[in-house]
Amino acid sequence: MASATPAKTQTKVLKFDTEEDVAVALAKYTADLSEKYINEKGSFSVVLSGGTLIDTLRKLVESPYKESVDWSKWLIFWVDERVVPLDHEDSNYLLASRGFLSKSRFLLRNKRHCQWLLHITNEQVPIPPSNVYAINDKKSPEGAADDYEDHLKDLISRKILPISNISGFPKFDLMLLGMGPDGHVASLFPSRHHRYEKERWVTFITDSPKPPPPRITFTFPVINSASEIAMVITGADLAETTKMALGNGQIPGSTPLPCTEVSAEGELAWFLDKDAASKL
Question: What range(s) does the Glucosamine/galactosamine-6-phosphate isomerase domain occupy (predicted)?
Fold first, then answer.
């Protein structure tokens, strides 16, 4: 499938005193990449995750970035999603809608592509509704995963998304990821076989060890085909896992944590506050 030999991922670890400092740095990092990719190819594809990541993006929708970022060129995706209604409190879509994309919103159905899109009523960040790709929450976990993968294939066929010439999987410009205390990323958990999926772009899980059980998730081949990945880790509860991922905390002979399998075709940047980095 691949047509080139992958280069070794460039990794940098950025440590900050506070979560506020991480939020400030993450906003500049994201805005700079937005300008770079829009200048190079006319769009900027961003993959969001859930959890505390959305709150840490808060500075991006404040001045000066709220006014200077060309939001009209952004394409928004989710690295994983809970298979619940999009207005459910467990929905990563709703989390992003409330905390990053817009403070007020309503949902709009695009019948042609059978997808839910975000309509931003207050233009806090004026991303076109057709550029926001949420799951079809009317389908089963398997159906939602198939549907999301089909959308990606459609976007590739229409030259909206590119294919990596290294991996043969979809190539996103930036993935913004978090990590759980157990080392999971997206919905790829240490004890679930989905972390080893190598063929599918999007897979599904019905027994997530973290509620709610039904989810869909990008697979590692898709995650690791991204041009840039930011691992955004804050809080003392993640210090031990951060040590295992970046230090010498992994027990010899044990199965590597999913977070240690993250790489990027360009650069992998770890954004850590002092608490998360305390055991490095």
Answer: 18-270
pTM (predicted TM-score):
0.89
What residue ranges in 92-235 does DSSP mark as E strands? 105-110, 115-120, 174-177, 202-205, 215-218, 228-233
Where does the chain have alpha helices with state H?
19-41, 53-56, 65-68, 92-96, 141-157, 220-223, 239-246
**Is 278 inside any structural domain?**
no
DSSP state of 179: -
CB of 228 closer than 8 Å to CB of 262: no
Q: Six-digit token pair at 213?
A: 């059980």
Beta pairing, strands 44-48 & 74-78:
parallel
How many domains does the chain contain in total?
A: 1
Q: Which residue has the tokens 């805005």?
A: 31
pLDDT in tens, 32-86: 999 999 999 999 999 999 999 999 999 998 899 989 999 999 999 999 999 999 9
β-pair partners for 273: 16
Residue 242 domain boundaries: 9-273
Does residue 96 lie within any of the structural domains?
yes
Residues of the chain with pLDDT under 70: 1-8, 102-124, 248-251, 253
Structure-block tokens of residue 165: 């010439």
Joined together, the tokens standing for residue 23 give 């939020």
Assigned token pair, 27 = 């906003």
In sequence order, the β-bridge partners of residue 13 are 270
Position 2 in a domain: no
Q: Which residues pair with 152 in a beta bridge?
A: none
Query: What's 261's DSSP letter?
Result: G
Q: What is the CATH number of the domain that holds 245?
A: 3.40.50.1360
